[in-house]
Write the structure tokens for this entry.
Amino acid sequence: GNSEGIYERIKLSRTCVTEGKEEEKGDLPIVNEAQLRQELRNRFPGLLPQIRKFEKLATAVLTCFPLHSALHAVPWSVRAVLLRTIMPSVWWEYASRTAEDVLTEI
């Protein structure tokens, strides 16, 4: 991170254009998860159901990632069967999609 504790910045391009000019609110600095959650709620109070749904989906996908990674230690013939049988549907539906794609859907 930098001296302000910011370790990442997200550019919210679809939310920061007014009359062809970019506004500063399109820059979303990330310090930690709690700050990010609060900042999204402050900036987009009318989108709370969508924000909550996105957070739930993101958490579900991230929770599956260690299992997905661990399955790479077994041979493909076994891994393919295990992936199909133990990975939840949320993994298959959302893991390969971009955040923008999912946010547009929800």
